[in-house]
Write a structure and sequence with these properties.
The structure holds 2 protein chains of 2 kinds.
Chain A (H helix, E strand, L loop, with lengths): L5 E7 L5 H16 L3 E5 L6 H16 L4 E5 L16 E5 L1 H9 L9 H21 L2 E7 L10 H20 L2 E6 L2 E6 L5
Parallel strand pairs in A: 1-5, 1-6, 2-3, 2-4, 4-5
Antiparallel strand pairs in A: 6-7
Chain B lengths: L1 E5 L5 H8 L8 E4 L10 H4 L4 E5 L1 H11 L2 H20 L5 E7 L10 H20 L2 E6 L2 E4 L2
Parallel strand pairs in B: 1-4, 1-5, 2-3, 3-4
Antiparallel strand pairs in B: 5-6
Classes of the chains: A alpha/beta, B alpha/beta.
């Protein structure tokens, strides 16, 4: 892996093992470089199901034998950028929840093109800044663009924004993986892992 | 024939435009989204050697709304043969089909949507078989399928 700051993008279906894969890369890199391990949690805990999902991920990280510093940042990612320095390994899990939180921040505003563009730009600004401040940024996201619900304006708008974000992030990333049932498929630049 | 597939908003059209340098090459680009039925005779009317059909899932939706599933598949196969015949008449000719993958969501509530999803899957398999080249586009990155 390059010495300068780098970015890895990891996506997959629900329960595909993408988070475990991302956590393993982060922990391995941190051990190798004696770097700090940071976790950006994006979930807004609103119900018991979300509570269970968050607890599940927390237990996994606790059992990993590594010490993670967790940052709760459901919106405005950029605000966190100065919390990291060039020794840090940062894991953001996951982008879909972050977009979701920004998307529904204000009632019905999601229909406004300017609002959509602002969200995309602010998320990308946060990612760019964190990437340049830390040693390695890993972003986890979801595969949700292969369905047939394209006649719903809300879903379509969300998908369009997520697709745009994913394309930007993959083009910025040194490596990109698609995780299928626990198996990571290297889609971009993974020969150096 | 080149078949390009992948999820929606993954940059399939952009990839095709760059791959074939379409800003510098004369071509006919047909987008299926707006005008659902396949435009008639477009293949006889154009003088361009490159034809791009974007959103073939909408052509299939149109077929699916009018025909039984098995007929949709047969009609699509006939359609592919017609296009391949056009392509084979001149070595400069190239047909590029862009089709969004709609196969991995939850089961649609409406029977007509389930039918559309099924026939699209079969039609893509037939398209893949007849295509000389095929690529999967994932957020702007291509994976060569054949």
């Amino acid at each position: 892996m390059a010495d300068s700051s780098s970015l890895i993008f990891i996506s997959g279906g629900v329960r595909s093992g993408k988070s475990s894969f991302a956590e393993k890369i982060a922990a391995d890199e941190a051990a190798l470089r004696k770097a700090g391990l940071h976790y950006i949690a994006t979930a807004q805990i609103s119900d018991t199901e979300m509570k269970e999902r968050v607890a599940h991920h927390r237990t996994d990280r606790l059992n990993s034998g590594h010490i993670w510093k967790t940052w709760e940042q459901p919106v405005r990612l950029l605000e966190l950028a100065n919390s990291f320095d060039s020794h840090d390994i940062v894991l953001l899990d996951c982008l879909t929840t972050l977009l979701n939180n920004e998307f529904f921040k204000a009632d019905m505003q999601w229909k406004d093109h300017l609002f959509q563009e602002c969200i995309i730009q602010s998320i990308l600004a946060g990612i760019t800044q964190i990437k340049s401040n830390c040693q390695l940024l890993i972003i986890v996201s979801n595969e949700v663009l292969n369905d047939s619900t394209q006649n719903n304006e809300l879903v379509l708008t969300y998908q369009k924004m997520l697709g745009e974000l994913h394309q930007h992030i993959v083009s910025m990333a040194e490596q990109a993986f698609l995780v299928e049932s626990g198996i990571p498929l290297a889609m971009k630049g993974a020969d150096c892992l | 024939m080149h078949f390009v597939t992948g999820g929606s908003f993954n940059g399939k059209a952009k990839w095709v435009r760059e791959q074939y340098q379409l800003s510098d090459s004369p071509h006919l680009w047909v987008t299926a989204k707006e005008e659902k039925a396949i435009p008639e005779n477009f293949i006889d009317l154009t003088k361009d050697n490159i034809i791009v059909l974007e959103g073939i899932e909408w052509f299939l939706e149109d077929f699916s709304s009018r025909l039984e599933s098995i007929q949709v598949r047969l009609k699509w196969q006939t359609q592919l043969q017609d296009w391949l015949a056009w392509e084979s008449k001149d070595r400069q000719r190239k047909l590029i089909l862009i089709g969004t993958d709609i196969s991995k969501g939850i089961v649609p509530l409406l029977p007509e949507d389930r039918k559309w999803r099924d026939v699209t899957g079969w039609a893509y398999q037939d398209t893949m078989k007849l295509a000389k080249q095929a690529d999967l586009i994932w957020y702007g990155i291509n994976k060569k399928l054949k």
